[in-house]
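Issue: ligand-bound run for DLZ - logging full I/O for the record.

Environment: standard queue, default settings, no custom constraints.

Inputs:
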Amino acid sequence: MSRLVLVLGDQLSEGLSALAAAEKGSDVVVMAEVSEEATYVQHHPKKIAFIFSAMRKFAARLRDDGWDVRYTRLDDAENAGSIHGELLRRAEETGAFEVIATQPGEWRLIEALEDMPLRLTMKPDTRFVSTQDEFDTWAEGRKALRMEYFYRDMRRKTGLLMDGDDPVGGQWNYDAENRKPAPDDIAFSGPMQFTPDETVQEVLDLVEARFGNSFGSLRPFWFATDQAQARRALSHFITYALPRFGDFQDAMMNDNRFLYHALVSPYMNVGLLDPMEVCRAAEDAYTDGHAPLNAVEGFIRQIIGWREYVRRIYFREGPDYTRRNALDHQRRLPDFYWTGETDMNCLSKAITQTADEAYAHHIQRLMVTGNFALLAGVDPHEVHEWYLRVYIDAFEWVEAPNVVGMSQFADGGIIASKPYVSSGSYINRMSDYCKSCRYRVQDKTGKDACPFNLLYWHFLDRHSETFAGNPRMNQIYANWRRMDDGRKQTILSEAEAFLETLGA
Ligand code: FAD
Ligand code: DLZ
Ligand code: SF4
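Outputs:
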């Protein structure tokens, strides 16, 4: 009796545990473009196009490799509309009553699979460097789950940038060297772009017809959609951008959307690139003398450190994580997150870029759109849904800890030891945004004052009970206390007036 082997849109890896547990000659692979996955949030059209294109190409590759693949397209008349519906339909068609799956990256889908009236074998997703057991053992008895210590264990485990038991260069972390402000220009023309082939063109037409009205531009579409292309994109990054990745990792520029960033998260997240393959390519660049240690260590840390760490936090914290709201923030997400229409140039640039590219880099996500939402007290669930919708690399296991935990402090400090908030001065230091803004970043009060400057103190003041005892925030609160009362009142009332312009 054949079994069904489920391959989801972000499980496009030949070494997938579900495929490894199946028999090529007798089991049937099920892949399906379904409206439930395409609409559980209203994804950016580029994200849907990327996933469907990569799914179609991966299905063709599995067929070439001898698998019996039952692939359902979104517009197929018999499409059941959901993953579980498609599995039930294929079970009836083939007589199968057992499903082999790799654990999905979202609680919602795990629960849906577990609810099906079919026998389910759920394999762990082994496309990561760490395991959940390993993380839970590491976490056991620790007061704080700081990424840095977990990262060191991942360095030891993988041997990446290790010299015996010691880190190469004598330090584990070179972050202090990775904070150079925006340079005058960038000597990198951006990520490798691919002209849509026939498969991608067909998907683009489908997505335009079905999801063309969602937030964001579908075209031009240039992402890699198969493993060979993704590997070329990686190699392009390693050759031309990695050497300066570290230096300008945190910089932001009006006229450069990608700087020296890799744009490999979508490829790793759907399985076209393996994280160890990406890290080894970076390590080789260091060993060959092509890229400096601060760049290579910084890059590898994001992948075997942050990426692994957030995955483990997501599965450790459970399905209610996206509903956490430790600071009791209730404001609706301002409308300009959907239009980019605001006088705040940093936000306008980050949001417009997001609509065009389905991409913004880490500091834009954390210190511009995330920072503003946190300062303004936006409901973290709304913020979470926005990020899940708008970025091409957004899957809940990686998006939610970054948004709910790191960016919005809504988990009460599991991920971040203090909230990532800043006034306009941080954005001014790291970008050229303020130079062309209607607001004046140096003004702390008054009609031209940068709203980040006002909201920063408003945030700290309204949450002083929560944060004043945090040793990492002593200095900031000391500064606030030292300010004279009249000035404090002016800041707070101007902040209130600004918040009123945002709506409820
Ligand atoms: P680079 O800057 O070139 O970094 C290299 C790689 O490191 C990335 O491809 C990514 O895989 C990994 N990485 C870096 N930082 C993180 C991180 N904090 N968590 C996990 N992986 C990381 N990343 C996603 O993949 N999906 C998301 O939905 C997502 N949402 C985010 C939301 C917020 C509020 C923040 C602050 C960060 C988020 N990130 C997310 C992390 C990070 O912003 C993206 O991974 C990165 O911008 C992807 O672009 P890149 O490949 O050019 O990254
Ligand atoms: C994100 C996504 C979209 C838009 N569409 C599909 C789809 O039609 N079929 C599918 O198998 N997967 C899709 N995905 C990815 C899933 O939503 C993803 O597997 C879960 O969110 C778990 O990470
Ligand atoms: Fe953003 Fe303030 Fe700078 Fe304008 S002045 S770009 S609002 S930080």
